[in-house]
Design a protein that fits this description.
193 residues, globular, AMMECR1, AMMECR1_dom_sf, AMME syndrome candidate protein 1 protein
């Protein structure tokens, strides 16, 4: 189960990097014996609204400590949609950790539930190249998308540039999954430490 301690560890790793060290200042205690596919998401509060600042993860099961360390850094500094996180943003950040579970391949691209399942699609682009894209379970619900809108956004996210047809949607290979998620603001982190 994802916990606030997992998020606190991501803050520890981020702060260590921003301070020019490799070892986190605090030692978070959590069970590191299990392995999960996971995502680390950073958001920044701007005028009371949370805005995505970085989100990257992995579908291969990883031990928690090494996975959280790697993806706390990758999502903070190497998400190509954003510039790297700076020290000046720290107090306005929040961190979410999503541990992914219950992967199921589906026969139909609509065989999933908004708000319950994350979706991972595989498809061939216009050049015949295999592409993938995913949204975590909360994305479609938060954006108030239908299932078809979600699939269309995933196709665009994966780089599909042609007109999206019903035939294209049906050609998608979809895997649904669930997520155990924890969230921690910087203020909560500071209180924990």
């Amino acid at each position: 189960m994802a916990t606030k301690q997992h998020c606190a560890y991501c803050f520890d790793v981020l702060i260590a990097k921003l301070n020019g060290t490799t070892e986190p200042k605090h030692t978070q205690r959590f069970d590191d014996t299990q392995e999960y596919p996971l995502f680390v998401t950073w958001n920044k509060s701007v005028r009371g609204e949370n805005r995505l600042r970085g989100c990257i993860g992995n579908f291969s099961a990883m031990r928690l400590e090494s996975g959280l360390r790697e993806y706390a850094m990758t999502s903070a500094f190497h998400d190509t949609r954003f510039r790297p996180i700076a020290s000046s943003e720290l107090t306005r950040l929040s961190c979410s950790v999503s541990l992914l579970t219950d992967f199921e391949e589906t026969v139909d691209y609509l065989d999933w539930d908004i708000g319950t399942h994350g979706v991972w699609i595989e498809f061939c682009n216009e050049r015949g190249r295999l592409q993938t894209a995913t949204f975590l379970p909360e994305i479609a619900k938060d954006q108030e998308w239908t299932k078809i809108q979600t699939i269309d956004h995933l196709l665009r996210k994966g780089g599909y540039e042609l007109t999206i047809t019903q035939e294209m949607r049906r050609s998608v290979k979809l895997t649904r999954y669930q997520s155990q998620k924890a969230h921690l603001s910087y203020e909560e982190y500071a209180e924990m430490c």
